[in-house]
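Give me the fold.
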Amino acid sequence: MPGNKAPIFFALVLGSLFCYGIVHLLLMRFTVGDVYPPYSSLRSDPVGAEVLHDSLKLIPNLSVERLLRPIDDVAIPDQALVLFLNAPAEDFSAPQLDSLEHAMVSGAHVFVSVPPPKRGRRTPPPKPSVVDQESPPSDDRSSPSPEPSPTHDTPDRPGQSTRRPPNLLRRWKLETTSLQSPPSAAEPRQVLSQDSPSPLPVTIPWHGTHAFSELDEDWQALYATDDSEPVLITRRVGSGRLSLSTDTYLLSNEALLQDRQPGLLAWLVGDSQAVLFDETHFGIAIQPGVMTFVRSHRLHLALLALLGLAALFVWRATNSLVPPCAEDTSSDATPQIGRDSADALTNLVARSLPPLKALEQCLTEFETTLGQRASDWSGELAEARKLIQDERSQPARKRKPAECYNAMQRLLQKRNTFAGSKGKSNIVSR
């Protein structure tokens, strides 16, 4: 009845509205970007870096991209700025550090803002082996010990084979320490420029709680606290540069709105021809697959064509293209002119049963019809079998199964006493 369809209609409407609301909420979250980690260039809220990404894209002749693949799988241009925002030093692998070093030697500028180290993530130094503990110290102090390379980790003792995990700060012989007077959550601390290049402002607000230590002469402190604690440092690496910071706030969306520092941004970009925002250290990466290949090569029409062919194949397999014949169920339907079932049986026997095998089968059926009177026919049956054996002994070309059959029929018809009885031969001529 028409009245029974109303609940189904309302259920469909409510289901559609529910699905629309869920999709709308998900799209809102992805638009705001709070599903991404802090300081990601895909995040548009105050703790994101999307404003910096979109602003740099407006500069002519400057290429701005997001790195969604590991840095060791990407070809970095020579005059490029690579940004690692809020990247822990422990998250860099050895191949990534090697790739970054190679890029800096070629002229790239790598900027890494290192967050405060988390408790429990510090790896203790490896313990010396038993042999090292028992062996006396060497007295040969005249030969100087080789100085380890600043780009590779070396064991503390010559006999140790255990290597510490890769670390960005350890790679360049750096450490981080807590500030003597850390800034409060309500008011940042002002840090001072340390003979920095002209575009940099004299003071900038700082929200970081750590500073760098163990700096050698190759490092230049750009900003430091009143207690001479460097918080933004840089050094030359080949034709490029490596810059490290303990704070990422000045590159966030909130800072670019409320406390922007154009001089710092101008120094950071410099004469770079490309800016790369790394997103892989946030866990945001492209997973290569079929759809990635389709989108990159614009094979959408080819994919739709394949789907159409698959749908046609399924439809063809389930439905015949030839319309079914209408069955004639009328009582006056005339039979089709042709051969009957007896002709079909004869053709089947002629194809599947050899002639001599047919003679043996006919004799066996005749013997079966005799039943208990088969003993009275023993002589005739023996002679009939002898006729079959004689025919079998002939070459294939000289065999005449029809004449053998007629001879068997004449032999068995001599018993007139069984004429008209059930024992009479009922062999049917072919």
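Residues 343-418 form one domain.
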